[in-house]
Design brief:
Its cofactor is FAD. The protein has 498 residues and is α/β, with parallel strands linked by helices. The protein contains 14 helices and 25 strands. The longest helix has 25 residues.
């Protein structure tokens, strides 16, 4: 895809690439592998604003940080997770990402401490011109195609917790996104505000040192215990019958299929799915532990994400005597704790606001086309991957109802097939276009009712009710599309001499 040479003009300039991948997290590393295998002659680089790869898993340092998806599915399909445990710590995920980058030579293409501030598509050049901050200096990087593997939330600013009187608190206040590494919570009374994956991870990790840990929730979540295998456990049937490489593939597809069938079952039979999950929770909680209201969500299974806990560690925490769960609305935060609307008071030395992430698509990069600003929220997503009216730019978005990497990989394979097609046909740009009729029934790009998602809907791109604009929610469909979808549907191609 060396367009300069194809068109008979000068050789590429310094810091000019066929593909620029932004972000060295799991999405960026995955996309890079697909670029270098599908387009072996393409030049590429990865621009990472931080000092290390890993993205979320390197940023978050709170106690117990771990995956909220099984690693057999969340891991890279081309370098499967080979350890027996399906739920992994943040540290081991970072190690796995780094090992994958080194194994395939991707690490040699990462430019750390390169923060992309702006990206302008030049119609004359048929390239993206990126302004990149590095060590206090600004440099320009050009790319024919840009892939944003920047995640879906703001790394620098967490979601502001809408909690009355929070400023009154005289103790220590923490957001899990910026957990202080020197915090000593031994013997402290801790209150975790929230009921999502972060809160459910924190509680069992804190009870061993804290005097008391209270999870304060406005409404409960569904929680599913996932058994953790150990290296000493007996081999599975696939490990006994097949070579390792095949056994790992079979395990991956088993977990993918199992999760998808459970999702379909939950949506088709919501009352039965609820009974199954609540029954599983009741069996693992202490005897006579009150299920209602603490474990009785008001919504159906998969209206919001189902939380996982390894070996039921969340439920086991309540057997230790210093963990409790409180369900109610906050009236106000006082100098020494929290007062609820029902009059109950929850004392605290430390308050943790595990109330969700500050959603943001595009990593705060100022996008422009010929210097005209791009409003991401006004755009529709082609195959949940590219934005209407925006040439040669991809957003890596995964699933809300399945492991993120499944969607990220489907996106990367579709993109690299598109880039290969463009090279073969001599096209210099691909621009998604949606008709008025297709756009008449917009849908959220992220189909969950979680509060932090609903608060960000005015900042997120949209999907529509018909293909190729459907939101991402079915891996089997997306996997098929990655290999076989009509690349011309909803897409306008251009060939411009540069």
């Amino acid at each position: 895809m060396n367009g300069h040479l194809q068109n008979g003009s000068e050789a590429p300039r310094p810091n000019e690439y066929d593909v620029v991948i932004i972000g060295a997290g799991i999405s960026g590393i995955n996309a890079t592998y697909r670029v270098q295998t599908t387009l072996p002659d393409a030049t590429y680089t990865i621009l990472e604003g931080r000092e290390h790869w890993g993205g979320t898993w390197d940023l978050f340092k709170y106690p117990g940080i771990r995956s909220d998806s099984d690693l057999f599915t969340f891991g890279f399909p081309f370098n499967p997770w080979s350890k027996p445990n399906p739920i992994a710590t943040g540290e081991s995920i970072v190690e796995y990402i780094g090992a994958t980058a080194r194994k395939f030579g991707i690490d040699k293409h990462i430019q750390f401490r390169h923060k992309v501030r702006s990206a302008n598509w030049s119609s004359d050049e048929q390239r993206w011109v990126l302004e990149v901050e590095n060590e206090g200096q600004t440099k320009v990087v050009r790319g024919k195609f840009v892939i944003l593997g920047t995640g879906y939330y703001n790394y620098d600013k967490p979601l502001e917790a809408d909690i009355p009187g929070l400023g009154n608190f005289q103790g220590t206040r923490i957001h899990p996104q910026f957990w202080p590494t020197d915090l000593d919570y031994t013997g402290k009374k801790m209150v975790i505000i929230g009921s999502g994956a972060t809160a459910i991870t924190l509680l069992p990790a804190l009870v061993d040192k804290a005097a008391k840990v209270t999870m304060l929730q406005r409404s409960p979540s569904y929680i599913l215990s996932l058994p953790q295998r150990k290296a000493t456990d007996p081999k599975t049937w696939s490990e006994r019958l097949f070579p390792t490489w095949l056994s790992l593939k079979l395990t991956r597809w088993f977990f993918i299929t199992q999760a998808y069938l459970f999702y379909v079952f939950s949506r088709k039979f919501p009352k039965l799915a609820k009974r199954v999950l609540l029954g599983g929770a009741k069996k693992q909680l202490p005897k006579d532990f009150p299920m209602d209201p603490h474990f009785n969500p008001r919504y159906n299974v998969w209206d919001q994400r189902v939380c996982l806990c390894p070996d039921g560690d969340f439920f086991e925490a309540f057997k230790k005597g210093n963990a409790e769960i409180v369900t109610g609305k906050i009236k106000t935060v006082t100098s020494s704790g929290i007062e609820l609307e029902n009059g109950d008071k929850v004392p605290a030395d430390i308050i943790i606001t595990a109330t969700g992430l500050n959603l943001e698509i595009g990593g705060k990069i100022a996008l422009t086309i010929d210097k005209a600003p791009v409003n991401i929220a006004s755009k529709f997503m082609w195959h949940a991957t590219m934005l209407t009216g925006v040439p040669n730019l991809a957003l890596i978005i995964g699933y809300t109802n399945a492991p993120w990497t499944l969607g990220a990989d489907a996106c990367a394979r579709l993109l690299t097939r598109l880039m290969k097609f463009m090279k073969e046909k001599g096209y210099t740009s691909a621009i998604p276009e949606i008709t008025e009729e297709e756009a008449s029934k917009p849908m959220p790009a992220l189909n969950m009712t979680s509060t932090y998602i609903e608060k960000a809907l005015d900042r997120l791109p949209r999907g529509a009710a018909v293909a190729p604009w459907l939101p991402r929610d079915n891996y089997f469909k997306d996997n098929w599309d990655a290999w076989f979808a009509d690349l011309g549907k909803g897409m306008r191609f251009r060939s411009v001499s540069t």
